[in-house]
Amino acid sequence: MSELVTGEAVVLELRPARLPSRALAVLLDLVVAVAVYVAVTVALVASTSSLDDAAQTALTIVTFVLVLVGGPIAVETLSHGRSLGKTACGLRVVRDDGGPIRFRHALVRGLIGVVEILMTFGVIACIASLVSARGRRLGDVFAGTLVVRERVPYSSAGFMPPPPPWLAGRFSGLDLSAVPDDLWLAVRQYLARAAQLDPRVGWAMAERLATDVAARTGAPVPREVPPPAYLAAVLQERQAREVRRAFGRRSAGGNAAPATPEVPVSPAAAAPSAPAPATPPPAPSSDGRTEVSRDVPPDGRPGTGFVPPA
To answer: How many whole angstroms separate alpha carbon 190 and alpha carbon 168?
Structure first.
């Protein structure tokens, strides 16, 4: 079992494909590609019989390159690493970090596959797959890819507990770009197996991992946050960012409520505000002087009950 960590810091417990299954998948792909190549060649020969030998040879070479070289590259790019033979055998091509391949990965695999599969009848590919620890051929080594098995029994051993609810959004401002993938893999493996570890050993491991992550992010671990909760919250924040980057904010956070447009109101249409109640005038005292209440100051504001000393 080989554990791969994706860009979302999710461990893929998938088994690397070995030589028999890969050879069967390549054989199925070659059968389909050769059948398509023969059909296209027959159609071209029938439609270009009036051309000279040089033109027919050029068309044959172009057809060979497009069907037997460009076809597998296009299929692996559009299907994210699953050709017809790999789908039948339950295989898939992924990057070294477990993510889906792109055009450049499929291009390198296809170009090198012409030499190690088509020109040498698969001898170089078989030798490289037998020598490699994970069954990779030369195209996988240069492209940074790996063929893995998708059909594996489900296991709940890798369940990762969620962070506490009071830490939701706590670390949304951290810079997680400097944390390497191997450190995320270590955090993911610790959280998945924390319940199986000795409490003291697990706590020491959590402190060490939290210190390493905090050193890469540039922000210390808050004292009130336990190290295991800190690791779970930071890992969930990274996963949420990758989901938003891959599927957009609408898919990550749900449908946002539409903003209510502001309607301008003309001054004439605005209703006049109600006048403030007038403050009753102070009652005159017996000696003719106006007595000001201590509760209501002269400026009309309510009194605070404080009387300055004489």
So the answer is: 20
The pTM of the full predicted model, rounded to 2 decimals, is 0.48
Listed as own residue / partner, the contacts of 39-42 with beta carbons closer than 8 Å and 24 or more positions apart are 40/67
Q: CA separation (Å) from 263 to 194, 258, 259, 260, 266?
A: 56, 15, 12, 9, 10
Tokens standing for residue 236: 């969930």
Is 183 strand, coil or helix? helix
Q: Which of 101, 99, 100 is nearest to 110 (CA)?
A: 101
Q: How far apart are CA 184 and CA 237, in angstroms?
A: 12
Three-state DSSP class for residue 64: helix
Asked if residue 9 lies in contact with residue 236, where contact means CB atoms within 8 angstroms, the answer is: no
pLDDT in tens, 91-122: 999 888 777 899 999 999 999 998 998 888 88
